[in-house]
Design brief:
Layout (H helix, E strand, L loop, with lengths): L7 E2 L8 E2 L16 H7 L7 E8 L2 E9 H18 L1
Antiparallel strand pairs: 1-2, 3-4
């Protein structure tokens, strides 16, 4: 039997953009495990730092995303470039 693609997720913050890769459980200490397949596919290594980004709509968290901190620092630099150029 052929493996089906995971269903596309409808993002409450915007248009369909991603898909459900896996379901994780939060334990009593608030921790969760990224499945090995996801870590391998994303190239996430032990000890790597990830930033948790929350998105809100109407005062409630609607989405969470993990970003590599290297990507985040590049985004911050790009975001602040107009400010730096004005000084």
């Amino acid at each position: 039997m052929a493996k089906e693609d995971p269903p596309k997720m409808i993002d409450p913050c915007g248009p369909p953009c991603c898909r459900i890769e896996s379901i994780v459980t939060v334990d009593e200490r608030g921790q969760m495990v990224l499945p090995k397949e996801v870590r391998e596919r994303a190239g996430i290594k032990p000890g790597e730092k990830l930033a948790l980004v929350l998105m809100e709509k109407d005062g409630q968290v609607c989405c969470m995303a993990l970003l590599r901190t290297q990507a985040l620092s590049g985004m911050v630099r790009e975001f602040l470039r107009p400010v730096v150029e004005q000084t």
